[in-house]
Amino acid sequence: MASSRSEIFIRLSVELLRLGYRVRFRPKGTSMHPAIRDGETITVEPVSPADVKRGDIIFCRTDDALIAHRVVSIKGRTSFVLRGDALQSCDEPVSAAQVLGRVVSVERDGRSIAVAGHRARVLRVARLFASRIKMRIC
């Protein structure tokens, strides 16, 4: 039986991250807009679940797919509640065993933009604050 491209991608990504390599690819979808736009290239690096922080974008395996969504809550270091930035509701919690890596950058207009780390967090909070002010004005 032949494997589909997505099955090959999943197996290869899981194995490369497990071995300590970074993975770059172009995810499809708009659930992480504006942080990650449809078709932009992201870089994912391996991460220990113990090092995941609220606000990180983690790459994990669910029952039927691989997803990259933001951590909104951590429950005892054993499970993580995720949500796409553009979505209204949270995903089903994922276990620490499902965590494959952390998204560290996105390539946009020919340049790499960090989405992990202190600077990225400060910029995200500033954008959130600005959008709330804009909503009050309009």
Q: Would you spell out the secondary-structure blueprint of this structure?
A:
Elements (H helix, E strand, L loop, with lengths): L4 H14 L4 E3 L15 E6 L10 E5 L4 E10 L3 E5 L10 E2 L3 E10 L2 E4 L3 H20 L1
Overview of this protein structure:
This protein is of the alpha+beta class and 138 residues long. It has one domain (5-137): Umud Fragment, subunit A (Ribbon). It has two helices and eight strands, in the order H-E-E-E-E-E-E-E-E-H. Strands 1, 2, 3, 4, 5, 6, 7 and 8 form an eight-stranded antiparallel sheet that branches. The chain starts with a helix and ends with a helix.
CATH architecture annotation? Ribbon
Order of helices and strands: HEEEEEEEEH
Number of domains: 1
Beta fraction of the residues?
Answer: 25-35%
Gap between N and C termini = 57 Å
Evaluate the radius of gyration: 15 Å
H/I helix tally: 2
Number of strands: 8
- Helix/strand structural class: alpha+beta
CATH topology name, in short, is Umud Fragment, subunit A
Summed up:
The chain contains two helices and eight strands, in the order αββββββββα. The protein is α+β, with helices and mostly antiparallel strands and 138 residues long.
Give a quick set of tags describing it.
138 residues; alpha+beta; 2 helices; globular
